[in-house]
Amino acid sequence: MSSATAPARASTRDEARATGWLARFDSPVATYYLLVFVTTALVVFGLIMVLSASSIVSLTGSTRSAYSIFLSQAMFAAIGAVVLVVASRIRVGGWKRLALPVLVVAIVLQLLVLTPLGHEVNGNRNWLRLGPVTVQPSEVVKVGLVLAGGLVLAAKRRTLHAFSHVLVPYLVPIAALSIGAVVLGHDLGTVLILGAIVAGVLFAAGIPMRWFAFAGIPFVAMAVAFVVTSPNRLGRLDVWLGRNTDEWGAARQPIHGRFALADGGWFGLGLGASREKWGLLSEPHNDFIFAIIGEELGLPGTLAVLVLFAGLALACHRLVMRTDDFFVRVTTAGIMTWIVVQALINIGAVINLLPVIGVPLPLVSSGGSSLVTTMFALGVLLSFARSEPGCAEALAARPSTLRRSLAVLPGVGRLRRARS
Q1: Nearest to 261 by CA among 236, 239, 290
Q2: Can you give the pTM of this predicted structure?
Q3: Tens-place pLDDT, residues 269-296
Q4: How far apart are CA 313 and CA 339, in angstroms?
Q5: 141 or 419, greater pLDDT
Q6: Strand, helix or coil at 119?
Q7: Selection from 90, 102, 96 nearest residue 386 by Cα
Q8: Which letter does DSSP use for residue 115 in this model?
Q9: CA end-to-end distance (rounded Å), the chain
Q10: Number of domains composing the chain
């Protein structure tokens, strides 16, 4: 072999290897497995960080156990896993039939917070207390608003050039009732997420951009009214603008959140070694868990979270671009907008790009209602991914882990060959 042909063959092997990886990414099961990987990674990572961030809060609580919040989160993660698997097995046609019933149930549950069953936290009446369990119906409203948006806009696909067909029935009454029910509970954070969902599904449906102004003006006006009529929210705005820097007052949480990120430096103090969780930073396991991630795991930990959410956005984008079903496209865009925008709002508040609004980091922060409903929404995406051409057949053709494990056992292998 001449010396000149060796580099050429090496280059050919490298090109073939690169082509092989690109072919794998173009596989009909790539979106499905990417969603499975990102979801699993975020949930497991979230459980680890909730255990670390909540240990002191749990220890000083009524149970006197360092594991109480973690065990509750692990229980909800198990429930969410079951919900995710069940949702992933429902066909696309089933979700079309369930869209409106889910929305109706969600709005009814949300209105129940105004009854004696409702429970108020920090001025927001957005929870239902059912015995020892507290649930947040507005999380279910997000799911209903996404599914209903996909169903209605798909049905009106050919008439969406007329604003009246966009206005009725999706903006009014569906979006108006959904957002209005949450407004009555005074939860601005969830209202902003719902507004982002509406914008996401309308954008995916191809609504002209000029119409977003007509829908956006009253929504922005409502958000401003929320802020100016609430001393608590005005105080948070003053903190964000730098007019209030009292470390022991309203500015305590955002200041100590940045202290946590600064203490972590490049590579963090080590898992479990946070100082701010010892009573200095409020809600370290919930709204400000990203600060604890930065303090304990440093820049690599925070970047890992961002990469995982980027991977989720990529999987949703692939699903939107590869499907021919308008319902799947719009619903997927709505779920992607919900999760990504909520993550950006949470992280933006921690790093002081945004005022503190009070929304959890999806799949990572402590909170049973948020975790279960987000995993439910990801189960819907897995159902859509399974409907991609060739995906279900490829998944069915692959041997299960159990069958592969049994195949290496001598007796089982001979028995299977004898039966065949």
Answers
A1: 290
A2: 0.90
A3: 999 999 999 989 999 999 999 999 999 9
A4: 9
A5: 141
A6: strand
A7: 90
A8: S
A9: 47
A10: 1
* Cβ-contact 285, 257 below 8 angstroms: no
- Residue pair 316/362 in contact (Cβ under 8 Å)? The answer is no
- Taking the CA of residue 172 as centre, how many other CA atoms within 13 Å lie in the half-sphere pointing to its CB? 5
> Which H or E run contains 241?
helix 231-241
Per-residue pLDDT band for 246 (boundaries 50, 70, 90) equals confident
DSSP 294-318: HHHHHHHHHHHHHHHHHHHHHHHHH
How many C-beta atoms lie closer than 10 Å to residue 86's C-beta?
12
For residue 148, the number of C-alpha atoms closer than 13 Å in the C-beta half-sphere is 29
> What is the Cα–Cα distance from 237 to 244, expressed in whole angstroms?
9
Asked if the structure places residue 321 within a domain, the reply is yes
- Cβ contact 45:305 at 8 Å: yes
Q: Is the residue at 177 inside a domain?
A: yes
Q: Token pair for residue 390?
A: 């060739």
In the three-class reduction of DSSP (H, G, I as helix; E, B as strand; rest coil), residue 129 is classed as: strand
Q: Tokens for 348? A: 């933006």
| Residues across the chain | 420
Q: Which residue has the tokens 């097995």?
A: 89
State the residue for tokens 């409106």. Answer: 100
From residue 190, give the alpha-carbon distance in Å to each of 147, 338, 390.
Answer: 17, 10, 37
Q: Which residue shows structure tokens 């103090």?
A: 269
Residue 35: Cβ within 10 Å count: 24
**Token code pair at residue 367:** 């909170």
Q: At what angle do helices 30-59 and 289-322 cross, to 10 degrees?
A: 160
Beta-bridge partner residues of 124: 121
3 state SS of 134: strand
In terms of residue numbers, what domain contains 347? Answer: 30-387
Cα separation, 142 vs 140, in Å, equals 5
Could you give the percent of the chain with pLDDT greater than 70?
88
- My answer on whether omega of the bond before 218 falls inside 30° of 0, hence cis, is no
Whether 19 is covered by a domain: the verdict is: no
